[in-house]
Structure prediction request, 377 residues.
Amino acid sequence: MRKMIAAMLSLVMLGSLAACGTKKGTEKKDGSGKKTVGIAMPSAKLERWNSDGDYLRSLFEKDGYEVKLIYSDNDSTRQNNDILGMLNEGVDLLLIAAVDSSTLTKSLEEAKAKEIPVVAYDRLIMNTNAVTYYISFDNSEVGRMQGEFVRDALDLENAKGPFNIEFISGDSADNNARFFFDGAYEALKKYINSGKLVSPSGKTTFEKTATKDWSTENAKTEMTRRLSAYFSGAKLDAVLCANDSTALGVEEAIEESYKLKNVPVITGQDGDNENLKKLVDGKQSMTVFKNVRDEASVAFEVSKRLLNDEVPTGKLVESLAVDVKYDSESYNNGVKYVQSYLLVPTVITKDNLQIMVNTGLYQWDAENKYIESVNKQ
Ligand code: GAL
Prediction:
């Protein structure tokens, strides 16, 4: 009897050991045997995430993978549930651009339990060891480019000043947003400290300048408020906007409420179609272009290796056709330094739009006046 119980016990143990070795995500409900990639994008409302989703989907599908692509309307609870749903249906890898960098605990625990690799796409996911890699642009560099653009446009090194500047930052739930702000502030700090650059609203910290959801509407409301409170007689020389969606709101506020007729220096990021027009029309001074097709291709290459049970390292960059650096020291998510692949952004003004056209992703219009993305959203 004892022998029988021992034999039964070892069978049970063998069974559970075998179960440990099986990634639950690979059990296909449709029986196709194809591996499935779950892609979670924050919101379909912003132009860039539509492009990212499209590029990623086509790269994986062309290579024979199944793709589940979800957008969660900038709602972090919904994104958590959407990811849980994908895990439940069965995915072999997750690629996530988080709505909120810190609130995916439940779904990430589930991914970890199922041994599904999680790659943070564009935005780092915080306080978890479930994330294996991070693919993004050099976020500090984006901010630095914006800050240095303002410095040079106002000739802060030589001009007497003082100049008035306002900061409109990104969403505080997005880990990138602080990197953008810090990068920009670092480039301007010296002039703020010396009084050459002044912020009449007194809002010169990330916390005080953050914009919920990166929304155009929220940026417009905030800028309108500051214009009426601090700029009834004062000149506005520059607005450091963290990206194009917030820049649009600022531009609308200026158009409607700013009575002094000078055009301030306005920064942006992403190269959204509407903002590219504003560059030509002189309503926005620059944008930082991040080639999302390149970002998607790096994410694809890293994911592919993970799906083949390989371990991507710094060496991978040598085989990639894009300008990207490997960095294992800059992005700490609170639990560990996440191995990162960081692409290089480019400053775009009305004078070098051809750079974007040369990527093949944008084209001139019939009058050769404006450019827009080839697959216009
Ligand atoms: C950031 C992203 C930017 C911008 C912003 C708003 O995380 O890096 O490119 O699009 O979100 O969606």
User: Anything to note?
Assistant: Residues 31 and 83 are 21 Å apart (CA to CA).
